[in-house]
Design the sequence.
């Protein structure tokens, strides 16, 4: 005789639990693989990045993108010469070269004071009244 305990399990009740379990396990595995790829990418970027020192012959100062494949790059060569390069698809052109220290801005405070003093000596009272808008 058979008892009711040995009856086969209802397969329709077991399949949804098994399917959800498989879906969760697959998503978890996918998440682990994506995290591993991102971690390896960050590690490779960190390890393969070139180190910079102050003794570098070339240093990139600024970059301006002009289009998807065109850009202008300002580079310091040995710290005292600046090169403005135009870079496009497969082509690098020297646009301008100058001494880095030649473009340092003058001390405008002292220059302005000196120019104002020189011009104020040459101004007459009539010039001053015309500047202030007074009529004579």
Sequence:
């Amino acid at each position: 005789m058979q008892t009711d305990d040995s009856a086969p399990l209802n397969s329709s009740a077991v399949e949804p639990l098994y399917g959800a379990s498989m879906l969760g396990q697959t998503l978890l595995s996918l998440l682990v693989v994506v995290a591993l790829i991102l971690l390896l990418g960050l590690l490779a970027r960190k390890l393969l990045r070139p180190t910079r020192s102050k003794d570098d012959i070339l240093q990139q100062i600024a970059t301006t993108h002009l289009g998807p494949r065109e850009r202008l790059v300002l580079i310091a060569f040995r710290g005292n010469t600046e090169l403005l390069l135009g870079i496009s698809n497969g082509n690098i052109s020297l646009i301008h070269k100058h001494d880095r220290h030649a473009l340092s801005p003058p001390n405008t405070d002292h220059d302005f004071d000196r120019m104002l003093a020189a011009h104020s000596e040459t101004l007459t009272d009539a010039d001053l009244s015309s500047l202030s808008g007074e009529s004579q």
